[in-house]
Amino acid sequence: MEHTTEHGSLGERAARVLDRNWTGTSTVPSRTLYPHQWSWDSAFIAIGLRHVAPLRAQTELETLLAAQWGDGRVPHIVFNPAVPSDAYFPGPAFWRSATAGRGAGAPAGVQTSGIVQPPVHALAAWLVHRADPRLSRARGFLSRVYPALAAWHRYLLHRRDLGGGGLVSVVHPWEQGMDNSPCWDAPLARVSPAPARAFRRRDLEHGAAGDRPTDLDYGRYVRLAADYRDGGYADGPCGRREFAVEDPSFNALLAASEHALAHIARELGAAGTARHARAERLTAALVERLWDPEAEMFFCRDLRASDSLDPRGPDGSRALVTEYGVSGLIPLILPALPREVAAALVRTARGPRFGLGGGVRLAPSYDLRGPAFDPHRYWRGPAWFNTNWLLERGLRLHGERAQAARLRAALLDVAAATDFAEYVDPYTGEGCGARGFGWTAALTLDLLDPAGPQAGAPPRDDTEHETEETGAGAR
């Protein structure tokens, strides 16, 4: 498929977005709306950068992991000191990582948030290595990132199994990455919001209020984050928390990254069998605790709604949040997913709730028939490139190659038409949010040639890119 305009090929256009967003050590999602380094954004960005600038792709991940906490967590934001402290809320003055996070091993030399995001990083590291193994081996890339990635997974598996059933819990909607999903409405309802005077919403300066979370929801996000901070970012039993949820996509990405860590271990001369086995246990726990066979969907599990470890017990049935979010389709990326579960998920993706293959340009973030569906409001209906990239990957993995090819073509068309929008209306493909968005451009590069460096933007000498001040586009 040819994607050429008067401004150059789609690959060249995508590479220019990443050049503009490059700071010298990492890539911002957006120069205006998100002027720092975000955790899972950097993983997706590295996956795209591997095709055009393998050294920068490695540096992207190394910069993020340099901000890892002593307990193993990888923070969801690494703040750039060159950006004004009030350019983004919640900023470093809110999180107070060096002081509030001291007991959890927050680094003293860099300011970060205290929560996490989905663990895509080991998968990204393995793909980056494969793009240029000679450079990776010469730099010792995998040998340097492997201990950090292993510690990151240990933190999640040991500190965040709040339900005791083998799955990781998120303690804030921002951790799952799909911040404003209706899947959080029921668990969030018990949270008293922070008063509006306690914070200033910088996001509304760069986006329409109708596209963003409501003030009520934002107040609840701030309350949860402040309580976690004031508790020293300590992870304890879910009974002490107002919000503790087992999420399908977060755990599926951890399982996929465990498989990737197994490959990395073997590349470094160690055995990877135990990690593959751990990934398969995570997959089995996903099916046991979050799969609803009648609904043909994975659902989030609200741990505060039940103390039972049996998801099919009298309390467990109430604990499943039966909202159809795109998170419930992401386990398609797992190779050990039972065949009947994968087939059912494909039926759900094609059905009237997600409309994949008919009726929508891209898979929405939330149920098209759901009461909270909104095609423009953040994660309550719009289609996102990273989730659709994961679905394309999962469809190919489970033999749905024709459907995957159609989705790939739609992603490339929409990226080109919207100037790499942050997210889009799933029906029309109309761009919403920021333009020139980092992971949209990066995943476009990957989709142009998922098997290797794509021809439209050949690898360059990474030393050509000068360091830029991220404060230039800050809010």
Describe it for me?
- There is one protein chain.
- The protein is mainly alpha-helical and 475 residues long.
- The protein is 42% helix and 6% strand.
- The chain has helices at 10-21, 39-49, 54-65, 92-95, 97-100, 121-131, 133-139, 141-159, 173-176, 185-188, 215-230, 248-267, 273-290, 316-319, 339-350, 385-397, 401-417, 438-448, and strands spanning 4-5, 8-9, 37-38, 77-78, 169-170, 245-246, 291-292, 297-298, 300-302, 320-321, 383-384, 423-424, 431-432.
- The strands form 5 sheets. The chain has a 4-stranded antiparallel sheet.
- α2 (39-49) runs antiparallel to α3 (54-65) and α3 (54-65) packs across α8.
- It is globular, with a radius of gyration of 21 Å.
- Mean pLDDT is 89; it is low at 307-316 and 452-475.
Number of helices: 18
| Shape field | globular
What proportion strand? 5-15%
Protein structure class = mainly alpha
The percent of residues in helical segments reads: 40-55%
How much is the average pLDDT?
89
Distance between the termini: 38 Å
Number of strands: 13
Write the topology of this structure:
Blueprint: E1 4-5, E2 8-9, H1 10-21, E3 37-38, H2 39-49, H3 54-65, E4 77-78, H4 92-95, H5 97-100, H6 121-131, H7 133-139, H8 141-159, E5 169-170, H9 173-176, H10 185-188, H11 215-230, E6 245-246, H12 248-267, H13 273-290, E7 291-292, E8 297-298, E9 300-302, H14 316-319, E10 320-321, H15 339-350, E11 383-384, H16 385-397, H17 401-417, E12 423-424, E13 431-432, H18 438-448
Antiparallel strand pairs: 1-2, 3-4, 5-6, 6-9, 7-8, 9-10, 11-12, 12-13
Helix pairs in contact: 1-18, 2-3, 2-6, 2-18, 3-6, 3-8, 6-7, 6-8, 6-12, 8-12, 12-13, 16-17, 17-18
